[in-house]
Design brief:
This protein is mainly α and about 90 residues long. The chain contains 3 helices and no strands. Keywords: Membrane, Transmembrane, Transmembrane helix.
Length: about 90
């Protein structure tokens, strides 16, 4: 795997986990449930950022099936963020 690609994925993971941590900290301070949804959503988005390459390399699947799994995980995270905005 290309080092620049790996670095970009790791930066995405770290940033999404920082946002998730800050949202969870906001939830603990305020007790507002939507902040918990934002936190969970960004955890899913961060996990989706790295799962495609892991699934492709570790399990030896096709890139299309790995991309499908990534899309489902990221979409779940976006759904949680959307839910937090509508509550």
């Amino acid at each position: 795997m290309d080092a620049s690609f790996l670095l970009a994925k790791l930066i995405t993971l770290v940033l999404s986990l920082v946002v998730a941590y800050l949202a969870f900290h906001g939830y603990r301070r305020s007790g507002q449930t939507p902040m918990l949804y934002v936190s969970g959503g960004f955890v899913f988005i961060g996990a989706g950022a790295i799962c495609e390459g892991l699934i492709y390399h570790v399990f030896g699947t096709t890139i299309a099936s790995a991309a499908l799994v990534q899309a489902v995980i990221v979409s779940s995270g976006m759904g949680l963020v959307l839910l937090s905005l509508t509550k």
